Amino acid sequence: MGGGETLRNDIRDLRVAAGLSQRELAEALSVSRQTVNSIETGRYDPSLPLAIAIAQHFRTTVEEIFHVDH
Amino acid sequence: MLTTELTARQKAAVLLVVAALLVAVLATGLLLQEHAPGNMGTGFLQGAGVALVAGAVVLWRVTRRSESATTFERAFTQTGDERDNSLLTRALAVQGLAAFLLTAAAVVAIGLGAETMMILFFLLVGQLAVGAVAFAVIARRS
């Protein structure tokens, strides 16, 4: 991403809709709860493998979850 | 990925590293006690002992109490996920960059007549402090 662009995502909405806690999602993805929280709040951008794992967990695509804000 | 369960190979590697560390610490401590001025050898052994005990506690927590292990503990034992590794890498990068500046300042201070042993001590403490603060700040922001 170039300067001024930020990555946001819909993980919190998807997680809440699925009735999962951050800890449960973290366990499903084999990451820490802090990592899930950081991704949800936009403080950490996941790697491509983790982004794909998140998308697969919610049975959707990376593009449907992650959006670039210009 | 989180890898809080150590494999047999990892356990063997940890035991080997701990044994090597113990030998190195004891040998260095005894050498310092014999040849270094003052009570440097005793101080070194005490400091290294505290560090080894702290390391053992961290290792025990990440393997037995993984759910309550901190980001710092996971990162430094290489049992964390990609964010933990990223935090450690970034903190060490900051520490490495600061090491150049701190070392340059130490050289200038020694050149100006400061006691070498004292400057080396502050250099070590300064680098550790920079690493710890960098890790805390980066962990808070990402």
Provide structural commentary.
The complex is a heterodimer of chains A (70) and B (142). Chain A is mainly alpha-helical and 70 residues long. Chain A has helices spanning 11-17, 22-29, 33-40, 48-57, 62-65, and strands spanning 6-9, 66-69. In chain A, strands 1-2 form a two-stranded antiparallel sheet. Chain A is globular, with a radius of gyration of 12 Å. The model of chain A has no long low-confidence stretch (mean pLDDT 91). Chain B starts with 7 loop residues before the first helix and ends with a helix. With 142 residues, chain B is an all-alpha fold. The model of chain B has no long low-confidence stretch (mean pLDDT 89). The radius of gyration of chain B is 18 Å and the shape is flat. In chain B, helix 1 packs antiparallel against helix 2 (40-64) and helix 4 packs antiparallel against helix 5. Classes of the chains: A mainly alpha (70), B mainly alpha (142). At the A-B interface, helix 3 of A face helix 4 of B.
Order of helices and strands of chain A: EHHHHHE
Spatial arrangement of strands, main beta sheet of chain A: 1-2
Terminal CA distance of chain A: 10 Å
Distance between the ends of chain B = 17 Å
DSSP summary: helix tally of chain B: 5
Q: Mind describing the biggest β-sheet of chain B?
A: none
Report strand % of chain B: under 5%
In angstroms, what is the radius of gyration of chain B?
18 Å
SSE-based structural type of chain A: mainly alpha
Note poorly predicted spans of chain B: none
Mean pLDDT of chain A, to the nearest integer, reads 91
Quaternary state of the chains: heterodimer
Q: Roughly what percent helix of chain B?
A: over 70%
Total strand count of chain A, please? 2
